[in-house]
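hey so u asked for the seq, here:
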Amino acid sequence: MAYYKGIAAAGLALAIIAHAKPLTLNRRVACPDGVNSATNEACCQLFPLVELLQSDLFDGGECGEEVHESLRLTFHDAIGFSPTKGGGGADGSIIAFSDVETAFAANDGIEDIVDAQTQFIAANNVTISPGDFIQLAGAVGVSNCPGAPQVPFFMGRPAPKAASPDGLIPEPFDSVDTILARFSDAGFSAAEVIALLASHSVAAADTVDPTIPGTPFDSTPDLFDSQFFIEVQLKGTLFPGTSDNEGEVESPALGEIRLQSDADLARDSRTACEWQSFVDDQAKLKSAFADAMKKMSLLGQNVDDLVDCSDVIPQAVDLPASAGPHLLPSLTMDDIEAACDDTPFPSLTALPGPATSISPVPAS
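ran it, structure tokens below
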């Protein structure tokens, strides 16, 4: 009897297989340039644009100032979205209505990259929408930073219809309550907020303290690594420039600037453990950032109307073998202000040598 039950089960399995739908394979289409291929033919037009971005906007593929500013622009355009207050999200309104949005206090200093991208679009007869261009530039730019993930990119956003309302972009002097509430309004969890802050691992501040433009948030602004999450957790001991700037608190090293909002989020019970989880988990850092960036890039958009062109985004190289989570020279684990009650802060050692000053990110 068991034998016949086995035969019957096997026959049923074969019948299911015979009637199952065929697997869908992601077949690639050869592009007209004879070099590249894409999963969707519509994406082929982007490969020459990616090359131009690398050569003309990103200084030949560097993880430099224009990358940092382009990544900032993806956020400042997209977060202009609220189910109750309006805004088109990731629609390019910050370029199309730059005279309005660059005047917002939270967009202080962003006019430089808005102008640079606007000029690039005009000079190269770019035909994709401003919303598409901003997200493409951010995804391509961060791929120049060793250790970064491949950030998803979708094409097909319509032209923006109006400027975003003011007051939707979080400020560095906002409380954790205010920041989490603003992100929650836009559909983000507290964990996703921390994931998005990985962008500060390849970022610098120009206007928080205008006396020291280009001051990075961590000691490795040309690497997408976890140093930002480590160094914000260190005791603040000094201001790298002047000491009376709104939204700035003391940092652990000369040449490094710390935002009040970053310091508070690293130490708040709602976010501290997620913050700490990135310290020694580069794979999680990359995955969480890519997922959060994808979600942000689709704010205000219907993904069903867009084409997934993620395969045009270059793959970043891995972090160099010499890179890895560490403390700044001359510091010890006693300098860490651990805030996660669930797990101990990972044990780290300091780089050898005396304390040094961190160099500013050079202007392009």
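The longest strand covers residues 29-30. Residues 273 and 343 are 8 Å apart (CA to CA).
lmk if thats what u needed
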